[in-house]
Amino acid sequence: MVVTMSAQVSQPVLIVPGVLFWDSLYQGMRLALSERVPLERIEIAPVSLGDWIGFPPSPERSTNRVMKVIDRSLKRMAERFPGEKVTIVAHSGGGTVAMVYLLEKPFQGDCYHRGEQVSRLITLGTPFRTHEQYAKLKTDFIDRHLTPGFFRRCRVVSVVSDKYRGSPAGSLTEKMCHLFYRSTWGDGNASGDGIVPAESCRLEGAKNVIIPDAEHLPTPHTRWYGTNEGVRQWAGWLDSDGPEEHPPALK
């Protein structure tokens, strides 16, 4: 379903890159969102590949490093837009990092307190249930600390595409999806965005939304969440009341 993007919203937006992705990959998403939000009110958290990997490699600390970048970005936005609430748009594993940050509980020794500055978190292809080792550090933490009260101060919209079905006996694409979905979810016979199965993105208490035609990876010549076509399918959730035509919720 395509959401009309004729009206603009004024709330500033902070884009958070996904795991192993960096800020420059999201310039296209920033431009696509500028159909709805003035470009000067959209920032990309300056996350680098080094933030995810660490030197020497320490992926178990990646969440802490990226939370630090998010905090600096929100501080800068508070200076630029004093008193205004911010919407965070986070891709893939960046969504769980943002959630850990917003919970304002100590995570591996780090805790931040800018949650009141953020009124909405939109996640794109973010698995909140996973078997992957480093991702589970975040999802287990979220499971322990997320309460119904959190959603009263911060609306969460979990968006995922179900474009691709995984099958061990299907096409090459279906076989690859089966492998990715199985590594995340344990069951490869699922539908998702080519990397993440849709069902793993379900978050109790959030607005869970499926869009029909987006891919996970921000690579050239794909219709991923950050292209014009991808953004039009979920950008209506930037509004406080959701898009003019609501995409179907996960069943």
Automatic annotation (TrEMBL):
Report the InterPro entries cross-referenced here: AB_hydrolase_1 (IPR000073), AB_hydrolase_fold (IPR029058)
List, for all copies, the residue spans of the domain called AB hydrolase-1: 45-133
Q: Mind telling me which PANTHER family this protein's record contains?
A: ALPHA/BETA-HYDROLASES SUPERFAMILY PROTEIN (PTHR47909), GPI INOSITOL-DEACYLASE (PTHR47909:SF2)
Q: Which Pfam families match?
A: Abhydrolase_1
Q: What is this protein called?
A: AB hydrolase-1 domain-containing protein
Checking SUPFAM superfamilies in the record gives:
alpha/beta-Hydrolases
Please, which domain of life does this record's source organism belong to? Bacteria
